[in-house]
Structure formats: structure tokens, C-alpha cells
Amino acid sequence: MRAVETKQGLDSAGIERALEQLHALVKARGLKSSATREAVARAALRRRGHFSVDQLVADLEQSEAPVVHPATVYRVLPLLVDAGLLQVTLISQGQGTLYERAFEREHHDHLICTACGKVIEFEFEAIEVLQRDVAERFGFRLTGHVHELLGTCTACRD
Description:
Blueprint: E1 2-3, H1 12-28, H2 35-46, H3 53-62, H4 70-82, E2 86-89, E3 98-101, E4 109-113, E5 119-123, H5 125-137, E6 148-151, H6 154-157
Parallel strand pairs: 4-6
Antiparallel strand pairs: 1-5, 2-3, 4-5
Helix pairs in contact: 2-3, 2-4
């Protein structure tokens, strides 16, 4: 088991690779390319860690991107998830849906302190094996998962 470091957002080359993946999905779905969709993707891929729609909208407002309405961001995010660029995460925090970059990032799970909100990202192969075994026993084919362990961190217990 090991902790997973939250890396910076993607660099320019990584963003271009991610956009190629997004463009392939857009084309496969028969959608048109969109500068607004690309601006949302670029802003999301630059983010570090977990973020809300409101935080992403604030990033877009401070950037040189075209003006993007929050409703547009809400419509674009599921496409970014479907393209494998982002994943929904930290659902149990009660803050609404949060997202994090999935593209070119290791899979990981979360420990969440319910007192202070601290999040520790970790990777533990034994948990992954157990999850696959459980899914197999019930006849499920896993397509992904969000694993969150809730508790109190050392600082909040002391």
C-alpha cells in the first residue's frame, strides 16, 4: 500500500494528448468540435486535485478563454468523464459532485477525514483484487469504481 501524490495538472503536451482523445469521442458521437468545450477541457486538465463545477467556472472566468456559462460547463463535464479525461470523485463529502483528472493518472482510492475534510489518496492492490472478486461473484463486469473510506485523521483525533 502506498500514498499517491497529487501531481500538478497536465502540461501542454499532455493537454494536447487528452484533447485528441476528446476529439475522437466527439467525432464518434457525431458532435461538432467546439472552442467552448475545448476551453472547459483545458481548464479542467490544468487543475490539481479535486474540484467542483464552481471552481472550474471561476478558473474559466480568470482565464483568456471565451465566456463560458456555468450551464455549459455542466453539459461538458459528462463528456469529459466519458472520454476518460476526468472522473467523478469524493461523492460522500456532501459538497456536491467533485471531479479530478483521470487522464494519464494512476488509479487511486480515498481516505477522507469527516472532521476536517482532509483527503489522502492511496493505492492498495489487495483492495483492487477484493473488489474484482466481489464483482465476479455477483456476475458484474466492472467498468470503474469510486472507493472512499471515511474516518478521522490523526490531527482530528488528538
